[in-house]
Amino acid sequence: MNFAIVGCGHIAKKHAEAINNAEGANLFAVCDTVPERMAPFIEQNDTKGFTNLDDMLALKEIEVINICTPSGYHADIAVKSAIAGKHLVVEKPIALTIKDADRIIDACRENNVKLSVVHPNRFRPAIMETRALMDAERFGQLSHANATVRWNRNQEYYDQAPWRGTKSLDGGVLMNQAIHNLDLLVWLMGEVEEVFSMGATRLRNIEAEDVSIGTVRFKSGALGVIEAATTIYPRNLEETLSIFGETGTLKIGGTTAKLIEHIDIEGMDDQVTNDLIDGVKSDPLGKPGHQCIIEDMIEAVSNNREPIVTGEDGKNALALVIGLYESAETNRPVKL
Ligand SMILES: NC(=O)c1ccc[n+]([C@@H]2O[C@H](COP(=O)([O-])OP(=O)(O)OC[C@H]3O[C@@H](n4cnc5c(N)ncnc54)[C@H](O)[C@@H]3O)[C@@H](O)[C@H]2O)c1
Q1: Range(s) of the domain holding residue 57
Q2: Residue 100 in domain
Q3: pLDDT, tens digit, for every residue of 80-90?
Q4: Ligand 1: residue whose CA is nearest its atom 33
Q5: If you average pLDDT over residues 43-64, what whole number do you get?
Q6: Which of 41, 52, 76, 68 is nearest to 161 (CA)?
Q7: If you measure from the C-alpha of residue 74 to the centroid of ligand 1, how many angstroms do you get, rounded to a whole number?
Q8: Going by CA atoms, what residue is nearest to atom 18 of ligand 1?
Q9: What angle do CA 75, 78, 84 make, to 5 degrees?
Q10: CB 146 within 8 A of CB 224
């Protein structure tokens, strides 16, 4: 299946690697408004390069477009690509507004193409094990959850490109960094009913927030706490996700939510518990998440089924972030 990447920056490298490593995938073309950015992709992969998206979309050989541009540009590029009949792999966040997310989802539905949003952490062993436990209802009645992202993105990071940290093209820590953890929070805990949050720009010279604290009420009645910051001195400290229920306690942790730090489930014997912890620890990342997304897209197209991470999933994570932003701006609880 022929893939093409739009936007040849940092994350595009992971897409190219994933396409090269995925069974049945080929990197056919790349597109960037800055020609020099395409050079390493063209040289390494023997692909075609385009500075004009329309010219690339005209190629019938291309079946899937991977959108790796600044977030605020995702929607226009996605809609154009869907109209051209291409399936889509869209980097997170799917878009920066619900209206734009809906435009993408509708364009894909109307043009009968598949849409997957890149939330690769879902494929991590710790997360898949947790999801299986949730599906088996091993936590009983849920009490609450905690999503914490204590990372460092220094000023140099934000100064790498003018779009970083802007409200119109990027967003702050919630929209760019924590959205991975928030996607997992919603995916595991279920739909969100209401949020209340505060945000601030404390240590970085950016337009959007570098620290955010929020509370959540899920539709189930369970509660949630969110803490997200890119201000942690001097480096990434942790990304954790904790779930507390009547018959289960679980904490996924490490610097990037990849280890089971604690698990206690009613009726699960010590051997099974320890094997679970050790199994995850022996291979915490599993197959690279971007490769899983590419292989899933190939299967979704071949078998005409929905991808594992859908456009609606991307929109659910986005809706939580936007609700938190609206609450911080209005200083009121917001119903989603
Ligand atoms: N899934 C993840 O773990 C992950 C990690 C990092 C970034 N991202 C997401 O990937 C996207 C890109 O981030 P990045 O760090 O690679 O950014 P980047 O600034 O390194 O790269 C963006 C590239 O897009 C190009 N570009 C800009 N406008 C374009 C247009 N209209 N058409 C074609 N090319 C265009 C730029 O020239 C640049 O080469 C963002 O949405 C970001 O949130 C996801």
Answers
A1: 2-120+290-307
A2: yes
A3: 999 999 999 99
A4: 32
A5: 93
A6: 68
A7: 9
A8: 9
A9: 145
A10: yes
Asked whether 141 and 134 are in contact (CB, 8 A), the reply is no
pLDDT of residue 46: 77
Same-domain check for residues 297 and 262? no
* CATH classification at residue 206: 3.30.360.10
Both 167 and 219 in one domain: the answer is yes
Whether this prediction's pTM lies above 0.90 is answered by yes
Q: Compute, in angstroms, the gap from residue 41 CA to the centroid of ligand 1.
A: 14
| 18 Cα–ligand 1 center, Å | 16
- Residue 313: inside a domain, yes or no? no
Q: Does residue 322 fall inside a structural domain?
A: yes
Q: Name residue, tokens 């899920």.
A: 218
Amino acid identity for residue 220 in this structure: S
Q: Is 270 helix (H, G, I), strand (E, B) or coil?
A: helix
State the residue for tokens 């997310």: 101
State how many domains the chain has. 2
Length of the chain, please? 336
Mean pLDDT taken over the chain: 97
* pLDDT tens string 131-183: 999 999 999 999 999 999 999 999 999 999 999 999 999 999 999 999 999 99
pLDDT at 44: 72
